Amino acid sequence: MIICTLNQLMIEKGVTQSKLSEESGITRPTLLSLIRNDNQSIRYETINQLCKFFSIDMSELLRYSPVNVTLIDILVEKLFASDEGLHHIVSVIYDIDGHEIEFDTNLIISNTKNSLENSGKFIFSTLIEKTIWSQMKIKKFDKDFIKVYNDAINLESIIKGKLKDQDLNTNFQIKEYDIDIRTFQKDDRSSEDIIKNIEKMVYELPNDKSEKQFLINSIKTMINSLNEGD
User: Fold this and answer.
1) Is the same domain home to 21 and 123?
2) Cα(193)–Cα(167) distance, rounded to whole angstroms?
3) CB neighbour class for 69 (10 Å; exposed up to 12, middle 13-18, buried from 19)
């Protein structure tokens, strides 16, 4: 996929659409389409004028990723209550290369406070199954492209819109992203194998026989319930 960074460039340089249109000769509808990244084609002359205006290379205007990234949803979930009210935490869900991946964040908010108010550092973290992440790396996916994508769609504005709907504090500005992607190895063992190993460990406990059997039955019920949920 290709992302046009025009929106972020205009924010960084403090340039309005009117000024850019007037000095570059590019029409406002064309600029708006590039800002929204819904332009299906872009003329060489338009690229040339934008690179000339911002004094940048084309690679700074148009960023390519071999893996598609699409925002699916932003979750604002209740976390805990304090004297400052009910606190919520924000998670961001993307479709990355056809896989739904949820990123936890450090954005915790109430009606009056938020955790980014002072630092402005937005931390994303997620766990991805090792095989899936290896496939993305083979395709030469760069996790920093997520930052480019977030800026292009103005993720900060989208998040604030969600928070305003719930009357939560939006007094923050995202100044930088820290994206932490960790992997885990999928356990390919069957439920039966897992239960057998658990039974072996339980039988080695010093509890009496009835307590051990109760524990094993409880674990079996939990595992079967999880499998039915899948």
Assistant:
1) no
2) 49
3) buried
**pLDDT tens-digit profile of 6-28?**
988 998 899 999 999 999 999 99
**Residue 100, Cβ neighbours under 10 Å: how many?**
10
- Domain termination site, one of 167, 184, 201: 184
The stretches of the chain forming alpha helices (DSSP H) are 6-13, 17-24, 28-36, 44-54, 58-61, 130-138, 145-153, 155-165, 191-203, 209-229
Exposure string (b/e) for 164-197, b if CB count within 10 Å is 16 or more?
eeeebbbebebeebebebeeeeeeeeeeeeebee
- In 54-198 the beta strands, taken as DSSP E runs, fall at 62-64, 69-82, 85-96, 99-109, 121-129, 176-184
Is the pLDDT confidence value at 187 over 70?
Answer: no
User: Domain end: 64, 87, 114, which one?
Assistant: 64
Kindly indicate the confidence band of residue 4, based on its pLDDT and cuts at 50, 70 and 90: very high
- Residue 161 in this model has a pLDDT that exceeds 80: yes
Least Cα distance to 91 among 110, 106, 80, 81 occurs for 106
Same domain flag for 18 and 78:
no
Same domain membership, residue 41 and residue 27: yes
Residues spanned by the domain of 213: 191-229
Query: Which two three-digit tokens encode residue 47?
Result: 């690229």
Mean pLDDT estimate for the chain: 87
CATH number at residue 49: 1.10.260.40
Using pLDDT thresholds of 50, 70 and 90, give the confidence band for residue 216: confident
